[in-house]
């Protein structure tokens, strides 16, 4: 079968690597992809939110399945576009329709969904510019720190956690009346701060049944021991030792099942990944957020632990036969370390040549912000450049291998964290 994979990050590199191993694959196209994805398929440069252009390509190249990496095209309705088009409607799409994509695309929608379905999440209220005063009063009535979330997609920047009430009020006003995050902050969710440790849990679902993928923990801060600015993710580890059987049974019973049942009850058809951003508070799992895609950089440690054929899993999603499907998981640890450009997450340089990738034999090299220039050299093309993932029988063994591989790869200003997973030991 011919597959089109949408996206260009480390997540898509890991997915492309896995799809490319399937015995069911005829040809994989990745759009737009990066320098690394071109070793697993053919990169094509399509505008990923221009569905008519994607349609032309899909028909011309006899694509039978579309796997959507990032949330944007899902929130914009790519699945709905395929489902309502006579020539496309039989092509499988991995990723939910627009209505379900609101679980990620609207914090207000997702909080209300959780409340309706008795899924544990922080208490909240939603405000808009007409209810700004009520928002101020609500802030006065709760304890710091204050968690303010832009309702819509804000490229991962729409969540503010603030200690001081006056500052929180000023930010609320900026978001609602001065469009701090554009239209995304036309509504703002204010919620109670939860103190605990986070874990990312993933399922693949056909809307009726689901398989649970390996869980992971990601590391968002630029500095070691979680210091400094937030980033798009500096590494990940899977499995997560504290997410033991007792905890994961609770996650399944109290969060995964009520979510799938809630979607069914509300008549929302769902085919694709659900990413549960959870926080463990006194051994209880609470939902911080839903995403309607895989996580990045979690995918870079999760996908290498999936032993099953991923196209077979996707086919079961599309034919809604996931209840007859089991998933085989590699017991080993996978630790993924992200190599970033100097200066990131502030200003950084692009276009530096990357050396020694071919010398890595103990780890997987998943490209993120890379491209091939006119001289056929691999160069940096983003802040997060390459994820290096290794297996180990212990977390430390996997981490040490990833660090050693990360040290070999060279580019101007390269930086990476050497403590991924260490907080869990
Ligand atoms: P979100 O985009 O909702 O995942 O929020 C981004 C990050 O903010 C999360 O990964 C958490 O680290 C933090 N966060 C969000 N909501 C809360 C909350 N209610 N309590 C504590 N931390 C939170
Ligand atoms: N790693 C968090 C995310 O993908 O949103």
Summarize, please.
The protein is of the alpha+beta class and 425 residues long. It has 12 helices and 22 strands.
Structural topology:
Elements lengths: L1 E6 L2 H10 L7 E6 L9 E2 L7 H10 L2 E6 L3 H4 L2 H6 L8 E3 L3 H8 L1 H10 L7 E5 L3 H10 L4 E5 L8 E4 L2 H13 L9 E5 L5 E9 L4 E3 L4 E2 L2 E3 L3 E4 L4 E4 L6 H21 L6 E10 L2 E8 L7 H4 L7 H9 L14 E8 L23 E4 L2 E3 L5 E3 L3 E9 L2 H14 L17
Parallel strand pairs: 1-2, 1-4, 2-3, 4-5
Antiparallel strand pairs: 6-9, 7-8, 7-9, 10-11, 10-16, 12-15, 13-14, 15-18, 16-17, 18-22, 19-22, 20-21
Helix pairs in contact: 5-6, 7-8
This protein binds adenosine monophosphate and glycine.
Could you characterize the architecture of this molecule?
- With 425 residues, the chain is α+β, with helices and mostly antiparallel strands.
- Among the domains are: 2-98, Rossmann fold (3-Layer(aba) Sandwich), CATH 3.40.50; 123-192, Dna Ligase, domain 1 (2-Layer Sandwich), CATH 3.30.1490.20.
- 28% of the residues lie in helices and 26% in strands.
- It has twelve helices and 22 strands.
- It has helices at 10-19, 51-60, 72-75, 78-83, 98-105, 107-116, 132-141, 165-177, 245-265, 299-302, 310-318, 395-408; strands at residues 2-7, 27-32, 42-43, 63-68, 92-94, 124-128, 146-150, 159-162, 187-191, 197-205, 210-212, 217-218, 221-223, 227-230, 235-238, 272-281, 284-291, 333-340, 364-367, 370-372, 378-380, 384-392.
- The strands form six sheets. The protein has a five-stranded parallel beta sheet, with helices on both faces. The protein has a five-stranded antiparallel beta sheet with strand order 12-15-18-22-19.
- Helix 5 packs across helix 6 and helix 7 runs antiparallel to helix 8 (165-177).
- The structure holds adenosine monophosphate and glycine.
- Adenosine monophosphate (AMP) binds at residues 122, 147, 149, 159, 191, 193-194, 198, 277, 288-289.
- Residues 218, 233, 291, 295-296, 298 line the site of glycine (GLY).
